[in-house]
Fold:
Amino acid sequence: MINTVPHLRIARPSRDLAAAERFWVGALGLDVLWRSTADGPGEHDLLMVGWPAAHWHLELVGGPLAAEPTPTDEDLLVLYLDGPVDPDLVGELERAGGTRVSAGPYWDRWGVTVADPDGYRLVLSTREWSNS
Structure:
């Protein structure tokens, strides 16, 4: 049994870390938590983004990739906003290389979905969420 709240890392390949940073940091407002450049064989460029106090972060892996990004319609990163989605935020995400997409009737009813520059989907949900 795990007796603490573990930290969650979501790792994804990215074709263009600069484009990913414009989307996730510049437009969405996440912080750069770590950045490194590959300095040896088998290593990758890394960009880790998130909010400093959160129990999760998104790790974007760049450079020569072992696997190309292959997002599916079900690869969703959902942020529960507990309120309306700011249309200016959606516009910023689109200007930063995102594409507004449909994620099906449920998510279209309860939020806005934007594909990042690599095609992975971010859902900004108007709903709230609690695990308790």
